[in-house]
Each structure stands twice: as C-alpha cells, then as structure tokens.
Design goal:
By secondary structure, the protein is mainly α. It is 44% helix and 8% strand. The protein has 13 helices and 6 strands. Helix 9 packs across helix 12.
C-alpha cells in the first residue's frame, strides 16, 4: 500500500502533470505579485489537475518566499516539480521589442509598453524627467536619440530605468569609431547626425534618394543657409496630418521652424532610422542646393543648383496639388 501511495505522489509531483492546452504557453508574473496572485495566474493559464498537490509542493520548495517576476514559457510536458523549479529560478524568456515610425517619446512609450511590464505612463514620466539622463549628456529635446529603431531582447519585467540603461548601451555600441569618424569628416556630432537623419526619414519616401538629399542639406549647412525642411514645420505645429505646407505655416514661432532658424533644431523630429543615419554619414557629394517633389507624385524629387530652376519645379508641383485639390 505504501508503495502504491508513494507511486501516486511521485506521479503527481514529478510526472508529466501540467497541461497548457497549447505549446509554449506564456505565464506573466507581475512585479510585487503575492503568492496567491501567482497561484491564481498559474491556475488560470494552466490545467493543474491536482491543485492541492501542486500547492503542497510549492510550499515545500519555499516558493512563496522565492517569487521572481517575469515572463515564463511553459511547455505541455512540464511536471509540477519542474514548473516550480522554473518559476523559483527566475529563468524567464525574453521578449522581442521593436519600434519604428515614432515621432515622440509618448508614441514610443505607447508602443513599448505593449511589450514589457512598465506601462506608458511610467515610461513617459521617466523620460520627461531630465535628471534621469542629463549626466549622460541628453536633454528632453534630444533623449529620443537613444531610441535607434531595431529589434532588441528585453526581460518582460524591465522597468523604465532598465530600459534606458540598455538603450544607452546600445546607442554607445552603435556609435562605434567608424561612425564617429565619418560624422567628424562631415563636421557633425552624433546628435546632429541623428537630427538630420530624422528629418530625411520624414522627408524622403524613396530610400535611394536619402544620401542625395543628405548631401543637399549638408551643402545648405556649409553655406550657412537654413535647412528649410517641411517636416520640421509639421513637428513645430504638432500636426502630422498636413499634406501641403502653406506659407502661413512658415512663420510659426518655434525653434523647430527651420525656415526662420538656421542650423539644427533642438532635437530629432522622430526616431531616426539606421538607414537615415547611414545616409547622412555616407552623404552624396553634390552641388545641389534645392529639391522639390516631382509633379508625377512618384515620391522622387527634382534637384536644382539655382533658385530659378527650383522655383520652376516647385511651381509644377504646386499646380499638381491644386489639380488634385490638396489644399492642406
């Protein structure tokens, strides 16, 4: 009889007892979760046939005092013992974090909060407080520079400070000696490269044009001309629905208005892509000063060396906007 009872206990505790209903079931254990909350989470996500046996083993293995927050992937053939050992160990599975096409910290926070435990409010609050990163040389206007769009692996329970620390490390790795040298050759700092790249990313629809337009902007900077970038006007107005930049918009009182202020705006107007950054670092050497969207709406531009030539191309484009009844 003792042998039979022992066999039953062994099967319950060490046999294949957990049924997830599907392969690779994620279990999320929140930071600060109580033992009862954890048990409720486990029992709601997994099929535990003998809950008393499972809880008895969890207590015997001191799990209530060893709760580790995180995201754990549970397989179908996991025994009670193996499951508790996994949760006790804190060996969680990372999540893949990807973000792009974000213009502001608020947008980024909204996207990332869907992938990690920290909510958008906590992320936004952290990056709104300059004291959290000023010692690293950033301010509110340029902190978005560290968000270089890519795919990163994070633990799900990463908090705002942990997110910043990791992205700062990735930022410093990205700006290796080769990229820094190329930036210096253009007379730019990494921050200035990113600002210009963010403008080009918004300005250019065709990837193959980015290095050429980067060359145009660099020519303007070297001549002391304003950048005169339409995307900076949208950013200054905080209205990204605008499809036609009207003359009245060009007088907006903002340091991001590159029609009335020379040099760089205070910070990027969005997350600069790696493609945009490398376009600036490998800008085409040309003598163009102006560019205007082609009237065929192909997404490409006409490039000019003189203002009179540019005005002709710009007029063609404006007429096509009128024809298509695009007035704003």
């Amino acid at each position: 009889m003792i042998v039979i009872i022992s066999a039953i206990i062994y099967r319950n505790l060490f046999g294949i007892s957990v049924n997830t209903g599907k392969k690779n079931q994620p279990i999320y254990i929140s930071t600060g979760a109580t033992y009862e909350q954890v048990m409720d989470t486990i029992e709601s996500k997994l099929i535990i046939k003998n809950k008393k046996a499972f809880r008895w083993l969890a207590n015997k293995k001191h799990y209530p005092a060893l709760i580790k927050p995180g995201r754990y992937i549970i397989n179908r053939d996991l025994s009670y013992n193996s499951l508790i050992n996994l949760l006790r160990s804190g060996r969680q599975s990372p999540v893949r974090v990807t973000y792009n096409n974000a213009r502001t910290i608020n947008e980024i926070a909204g996207k990332i909060s869907k992938m990690i435990e920290a909510d958008s409010v906590k992320l936004t609050d952290f990056f709104s407080d300059e004291s959290n990163y000023s010692s690293d040389g950033f301010n509110k206007e340029n902190i978005i520079s560290i968000f270089i769009p890519n795919t990163y692996e994070f633990y799900w329970n990463t908090d705002a400070k942990g997110l910043y620390t990791r992205l700062l490390r990735e930022y410093r790795l990205f700006w290796n000696d080769k990229r820094i040298t190329k930036a210096k050759e253009e007379g730019l700092s990494p921050r200035e490269v990113i600002i210009l790249a963010s403008i080009i990313d918004d300005e250019v629809a065709k990837k193959d044009e980015k290095p050429r337009i980067a060359g145009v902007y660099l020519n303007r900077l070297k001549r002391g001309m304003p950048l005169q970038s339409c995307p900076t006007i949208k950013f200054a107005l905080n209205d990204f629905t605008i499809t036609r930049i009207l003359k009245k918009y060009l007088t907006v009182d903002s340091p991001y208005n590159t029609y009335i202020h020379s040099g760089f705006p205070p910070g990027p107007i969005g997350c600069a892509t790696i493609e945009g950054i490398d376009a600036v670092l490998n800008a085409e050497k040309n003598d163009y000063i102006f560019f205007a969207a082609k009237a065929d709406f192909s997404g490409y531009h006409n490039f000019s060396r003189t203002l009179s030539e540019h005005n002709r191309y710009a007029s063609e484009y404006q007429k096509e906007l009128d024809k298509r009844k695009i007035y704003r």
